[in-house]
Amino acid sequence: MTSQRASVPAQLDHILHEMSEVRVTPKGERRVRVDLAADRLPTLLQLLKGHGGFLHLSSISCVDWPETDEFELVYHVWSYESKMLISAHTLIAKSPGRFVSVYDIHAPAGFYERDIHEMYGVHFEGSPNLNKFILTSWHGPPPMLKSFDTRAYVDETYAWRDYNPQWLKDIAAKGGGIEE
Amino acid sequence: MRPENYKPVRHPPSHEYELYFGPNHPGIEGNYAIRVRLKGDVVQEAITDAGYLHRGFEKIMEERLWVQNVALVPRICVPDPVPMEESYARAVETLGGIEVPERAQWIRVLMLEMSRICAHLFTFGGNAATIGLYTNMFWGVTMRDLFLDIFEEITGARIYHMYITPGGVRRDLPDGVLDRLAAVLDELERKKPEFDDLFFENAVVINRATGVGVLTQAQALAWGVTGPNLRACGLAHDVRRDDPYLVYPALKFDIPTATSGCSLARMHVRRAEVEQSVRILRQVMERLRTVGGPVRAHLPNPLAWNVPAGEAYARTESSKGELAFFAVSNGGPKPWRIQVRGPSQMHGVQVLERILEGARIEDVAQIMFSLDACPPEIDR
Predict the structure, then answer these.
(1) Tell me, which fold does domain A3-173 have in CATH?
(2) Spans of all domains in chain A
(3) Number of H helices, E strands in chain B
(4) Tens digit of each residue's pLDDT (9 = 90 or more) over B243-269
(5) What ipTM was predicted for this assembly?
(6) Which residue out of A111, A139, A153 would a mutagenesis test of the B interface target, given it has the greatest number of B Cβ atoms within 10 Å?
């Protein structure tokens, strides 16, 4: 536990006491940010669920950080009792881009892990279903990666065509039209 | 007498078959599909199939200025677009440390509750149509149209208002609109007994929807269900009360619940929520007659606005449940990451698949509509 422990809300203190190397940052009323190493994350979620009443996995977010070649995974858990949202942030290396599934702790993870796998290519070991869901006919790289340039893809894949119908010419004749 | 060359058709020993339900099926909610494996008329397995409405919003938003995304976000959920605007705006305000003026907060609540009523009216109609009652659909849509007239008057648009912007709302209310909204609310209340007669007291609805598509509270909690679907299982959780935003703490409203967790219970909760929304709207309208001041905070030049680096998780109670926007800024003029957490991502996928198991084919559409899944929220 780092020096910021003093600012931890009281009801969380006893849970985080069992964890080491956890940085806790209160982010306003009912929001707490927790930073920790990836291998500690499932333990934290288990402790929060078992001892803190954080039953509801609101979401799992993935953020691509190409400069450090890392993915940031954020697990947002909500407690119906203490009415607080904890966002647990962890970083994993983009290569090999593998992480453990938390489906056995929180069933909603099944959807989010499948989505992140599809959009970012992160493989969650033990996730019940990582089949394609939304991009069934897509065979390119995971599109949410920062390295995937939408505009370049469109330029390479489709031909641009001039669009200059009569009504637009009429507008242009009156001094209007599309500015390049 | 059979002809000599007659050969009877040999059926396979198993009578299991697969049915593709949607996306162009009147019993499916929006552009969505369910692959259903049946034995007789009982569902053995249901697999949802999304992607028909994927427009890549999250990716597009990373390539637009913060302010440009105001025009994109309402399009994520067609029936209930205002919570999308609110969540996005609040995420940006949290990042930028912007205080929303009081009058703008009241106006936003007005918009949010009107949107909730519209979405529920739509759902009543859709739900009734799945069991063969089409009048509800016509009446619901007609009633909703009166609210759309008010939306149009306030924002200039009927569905995608692009009205709630970071820092407040785009412009103040037009003169006299509160009186016209009061008349619409009166009309809704006048019509309520007729709606009840047509739907909630209709023997067809009661027989078809009672005890169908049951979700227990334990299942709902384990599977991440929120909103009216969770409240229909007896848990009175509402983001407006438990994680409040805007001026909701200053408003008096109840959180309706039911206990049986079936299709009918979910619709009863929505019906009660419409009543509560009307109650909220009347309080808001009263306040708006006295609260003055600006409707927008002073913002930096939106075309060259570098939102401070950080992250924000903005939760809103939409008509379907907990809606959240996760916004990350790296201090640049465009979002680094926006994630949309739609409530239907839970009850429209894993939950739907599970509670459809064992259901009968004629109830598949009804169960989906009673959960009020919104496919565009899943696809984004």
Answers:
(1) Beta Polymerase; domain 2 (3.30.460)
(2) 3-173
(3) 14, 8
(4) 999 999 999 999 999 999 999 999 999
(5) 0.88
(6) A111
